[in-house]
Amino acid sequence: MRSRKKAPIWAWLVVSSAAVFFALPMIAMARFAFQRVPVALLGRDTILKRWTLDGLFDMFSDPDFRPALWLSIRIALLTVVATFLIMLPTALWVNTRAARYRSLVEVATLMPYVVPPIALVVGAGGAFRDIAPWFLRSDYSLVPFYVILAMPFTFRSLDAGLRAIDLRTLLDAARSLGASTPRALVRIVVPNMTSALSGSAFLTITVVLGEFTIASLFLKPTLPLYMSYSQGRNPQGALGLAVLMLLFTTLAFFAASRLREKGRRSTREAIGVLP
After folding, report:
1. What DSSP line would sit under 77-144, residue for residue?
2. What is the pLDDT of residue 270?
3. Alpha-carbon separation of residue 118 from 114, 203, 225, 227 (angstroms)
4. Are 163 and 217 in contact (CB under 8 A)?
5. Domain ranges of the chain
6. pLDDT tens digit string along 139-159?
7. Dihedral sign, CA of 237, 240, 246, 247?
8. Distance between CA atoms of 136 and 220, rounded to whole angstroms?
């Protein structure tokens, strides 16, 4: 039995402060969204009064809600597929044949943090306006931009999943049994990356469902843009939908972390580190 060290007090203070910092705005949003009480009266005395979901149901019954939700879901799924097609081979290449280029790839995947989304949109809009105007008119023109935004999360999740398994040993064993490298990657390596792939998909979907700047600049009727426009006619419903989105994002991150930890534990058990 391995002894576990207790976390220091300062660590608990940091975690508690962060929890309070995020929880208080969430509680305030939930009260404004789900209580039929004037804002001036939202205090301790009215915390249990007149809770209702009418504003949220009004959003669900809005004829513009379902098209916006369905468009965001389609774009999210296409973004996940496109991200995997680009980043999974890149992560495999870095971990098998080009380890010396790892720092270069990591810097390249961090470029979305360096280039502002508005600069990216203005540059792409000017470049494609004359060359491919049909691309800018399509709702799916958001997919390449969202792939770029998801690169920092996706590459690191896939890279961590590949580092968690003994990749070179698996490939050498597969080759010794007569399997080609592509076959070994598809039949052996990728199935051992289920947690990393799931975590990357969750992170990419949360990026797409929460992105507003690029969709608004391209005037695409996605769910975040619909929520922004709905605040004028149904502010409680819009905030209620925002609370649901935050809860979904939090659960997605929690599920991704649990899957990643489960994958690491399965890998350690497979190589005999754990009893």
Report:
1. HHHHHHHHHHHHHHHHHHHHT-GGGHHHHHHHHTHHHHS-HHHHHHHHHHHHHHH-HHHHHSGGGHHH
2. 46
3. 12, 22, 16, 20
4. no
5. 1-52, 53-270
6. 888 999 999 988 888 888 888
7. negative
8. 10
Q: Mutual orientation of helices 142-164 and 117-131 as an angle, nearest 10°? A: 120
Cβ pair 242, 26 in contact under 8 A: no
Q: Residue 47 pLDDT more than 50?
A: yes
Q: How many CB atoms lie within 10 A of CB 67?
A: 13
Q: Which distant-in-sequence residues (6+ apart) come within 8 Å of 219 by Cβ?
A: none
Question: What pLDDT is stored for residue 271 in this prediction?
Answer: 45
Q: Which residues contact 37 (CB under 8 A, 6 or more apart)?
A: 31, 46, 49, 50
Percent of the chain at pLDDT > 90 equals 7
- 51 backbone dihedrals φ, ψ, rounded to 5°: -80, 135
SS3 at position 191: helix
Q: Is the pLDDT of residue 2 over 60?
A: no
User: Which of 110-115's residues contact partners 24+ apart within 8 Å by CB, and which partners?
Assistant: 110/152, 111/148, 111/151, 112/148, 112/149, 112/151, 112/152, 113/152
3-state secondary structure 3-29: CCCCCCHHHHHHHHHHHHHHHHHHHHH
Q: Which two tokens stand for residue 194?
A: 């289920």
The CATH number of the structural domain formed by 53-270 is 1.10.3720.10
Q: In this model, does residue 82 exceed pLDDT 90?
A: yes
154-179 burial: b if 16+ Cβ within 10 Å, else e: bbbbbbbbbebbebeeebeebeeeeb
Residues sharing a CB contact under 8 Å with residue 218, sequence separation 6 or more, in sequence order:
121, 125, 136, 141, 142
260 or 215, higher pLDDT: 215
